[in-house]
Design goal:
GO cellular component, one term: cytoplasm
Keywords: Aminoacyl-tRNA synthetase, ATP-binding, Cytoplasm, Ligase, Nucleotide-binding, Protein biosynthesis
Strand order of the largest sheet: 7-6-5-11-12
Pfam families: Arg_tRNA_synt_N, DALR_1, tRNA-synt_1d
CATH class of the largest domain: Mainly Alpha
Distance between the termini: 54 Å
Enzyme class: ligase
Number of strands: 14
Subunit structure: Monomer.
Length: about 625
């Protein structure tokens, strides 16, 4: 038996937890002769956790409390025997300070100062932008399905969370070296296109017949209004309704004119989507709409029939996941309908075809669906059918990544005053406008501040506004609903994007001043400019504030890995926010710019640099750009 994530390598900031767990297991097995059965119970209870308070060290273990009864001994006595044996290992002595026993038998571990300094020095010396964070092994192919707007419907606030969360997860997994496929499962097929094509043929019939006509040839200024007008006609005009149904049949049978109209409508939407994605900095998102999987749907239904998984119910073909009652209804969950009685296919059929393609053609090890939590039961059922049908193999992990609603400040679903869904473009533009307004107000209040050139102020306001929207979303547990408030997300206090951006600007300024001070100090001492300079800085530890900051910086690799494993980006936000607070405490008690001791000044400047780089990497993983000043 091995601990999850166990490693025989030396301890690093990235693997310290599994390394320590392995040392604990080896000590219990070899030095204390604990049985495999007892070890299993210890592992299931958790070998170590992060210390709840700084005075308890860095990590804690209650392994002695868990095993004492099984070994028929007192917990504190067992804790002492265990800690003596563990600390007797030379490899452990290189990583940990002397182990402490607390209370009835808790074991407290504190990382040694020398190990902390060594690991932070590795982060500082790494100049490839990775802060000595290793790439994942084994490397996985990860397909992430996110954003997923619908053709002919403008992106709205409901698409915000999927797009932002999906992009952050893709960035984290990509940073760790996984092979990430970003997919935009666009709603570009279905019965609504019969309605839209009929409307287009009525309002601009010449476009369909025109040679070489494209989206630019269509005089539709507002595609959403176009959709609403078509829907109104469909609901009120029976003749239009009948024509629309016929258009669906023609489209599905490959009629050239219908396909041309469909492509034009899709292209208009893609242009709209692209502009929003550009604002949000979304890159590498490959569109693969429902239409892509349409040719595979008949085969999906046939395979389910061949495997005797689907049954007929009221003319429809269904997969029952729970036993059926005498009247044919499900005794538990609703059946998964894969083909309607009229021969049409369902979203579930498309999703099954997509899973099969992603697992067997894309060769995905993980498939993530960043979709609102209202679809949880749908994905649970579809995943189960896919596994039973062999569309997903045992190797592939299918995961729904659910998220809650965006609420207004009144606690109700976020809408405009008229009750309409908020357009995403309008929401982003308003955030930028308010950020720009704030910058101008601050300029008026601070007459000594350097004036903002219009172009720089506009660029800075754009970064702040968009970062504020992103960070406000990502800093929340994705499964929770959250209240959308411009005033809160644009605030320069608390866990917000402006606070984080200001912290980064401040740290960069401190480091520049410290470096300039050092250069002047060297110049005053008439140092030889041609003398070789060291590429490394010897780090020193002189205060508790330095220690707290260093230890927090070393958690960064594990935080990133934790986001990749658990898919909760807010954990990264929490880490960065706490980092900025710890840096403030460090700077208040540990002078950097004007400290006389050259070695201490160099060390503290290096600590500033590592903090700066961690914030830069962390914000970039959240999809947030930097600003030069605030």
């Amino acid at each position: 038996m091995a601990s999850n994530g166990a490693t025989d390598e030396g301890a690093t900031a990235a693997n310290i937890v599994p390394w320590l767990e392995q040392q604990i297991l080896t000590t219990l097995r070899e030095d204390l002769s604990v049985s495999e059965d007892a070890l299993t119970s210890a592992v299931s209870a958790g070998l170590i956790t992060e210390a709840t308070r700084p005075e308890f060290g860095d990590y804690q273990s209650n392994v002695a409390l868990v095993l004492a009864k099984k070994l028929k001994t007192k917990p504190r006595d067992l804790a002492q025997r265990f800690s003596d044996a563990l600390y007797g290992r030379p490899a452990v002595q290189q990583v940990l300070a002397p182990i402490e026993i607390a209370g009835p038998g808790f074991v407290n571990f504190r990382l040694s100062d020398s190990w902390v300094l060594g690991e932070l020095s590795r982060m500082h010396q790494d100049r490839d932008g990775r802060l000595a964070i290793p790439t994942a092994s084994p490397r996985e192919r990860v397909v992430i399905d996110y954003s997923s707007p619908n053709i002919a419907k403008e992106m709205h606030v409901g698409h915000l969370r999927s797009t932002i969360i999906g992009d952050a997860l893709a960035r984290v997994l990509d940073f760790l070296g996984h092979d990430v496929v970003r997919l935009n499962h666009v709603g570009d097929w279905g019965t609504q296109f019969g309605m839209l094509i009929s409307q287009l043929k009525d309002v601009q019939p010449d476009v369909i017949e025109q040679e070489g006509a494209s989206a630019s040839s269509v005089a539709i200024s507002d595609l959403v209004a176009f959709y609403k007008e078509a829907k109104k006609r469909f609901d009120e005009d029976e003749a239009f309704q009948e024509r629309s149904r016929n258009e669906v049949v023609k489209l599905q049978s490959g009629d050239p004119a219908s396909l041309k109209a469909w492509r034009i409508l899709c292209d208009i939407s893609r242009k709209e989507f692209g502009e929003v994605y550009e604002m949000l900095g979304i890159q590498g998102l490959e569109e693969r709409g429902e239409s892509f999987y349409n040719p595979f749907l008949k085969d999906v239904v046939k395979e389910l029939e061949d495997r005797k998984l689907s049954e007929e119910s009221q003319g429809a073909k269904c997969v029952f996941l729970d036993p059926r009652n005498e009247d044919g209804s499900s005794s538990g969950r609703p059946p998964v309908i894969v083909q309607k009685s009229d021969g049409g296919f369902m979203y579930s059929t498309t999703d099954l075809a997509a899973i099969k393609h992603r697992v067997w053609t894309e060769r995905a090890d993980r498939v993530l669906y960043v979709v609102d939590q209202g679809q949880s039961s749908h994905f649970s059922s579809v995943f189960e059918v896919a596994k039973k049908a062999g569309f997903a193999n045992d190797k592939a992990k299918l995961t729904h990544v659910p998220f809650g609603l965006v609420l207004g400040e009144d606690g109700k679903k976020f809408k405009t005053r008229s009750g309409d869904t908020v357009k995403l473009r309008d929401l982003l533009n308003e955030a930028v406008r308010l950020a720009d307004e704030d910058l101008q107000e601050r300029q008026k209040e601070d007459s000594e501040a350097q004036p903002w050139p219009d172009e720089e102020r506009t660029r800075t306001a754009t970064v702040i506004g968009l970062a504020s929207v992103k960070y406000a979303d990502l800093s929340m547990n994705r499964e929770s609903n959250y209240q959308f408030s411009y005033s809160k997300m644009l605030s320069r206090t608390g866990n917000t994007a402006p606070y984080m951006l200001y912290a980064l600007v401040r740290i960069k300024g401190i480091r520049r001043k410290a470096q300039a001070n050092t250069q002047q100090h060297d110049k005053d001492k008439d140092m030889d400019k041609d003398a070789p300079t060291s590429t490394t800085t010897a780090l020193v530890l002189t205060s508790p504030a330095e220690s707290s900051l260093m230890r927090h910086l070393l958690k960064f690799p594990r935080v990133i890995q934790g986001v990749a494993d658990t898919l909760y980006p807010h954990k990264l936000c929490e880490h960065l926010f706490e980092l900025s607070q710890l840096f403030n405490q460090f700077y208040e008690t540990c002078p950097v710019v004007n400290v006389e001791d050259a070695a201490v000044r160099a060390s503290r400047t290096a600590i500033c640099e590592v903090t700066e780089r961690v914030l830069q990497v962390g914000l970039d993983l959240l999809g947030i750009q930097e600003v030069e000043r605030l």
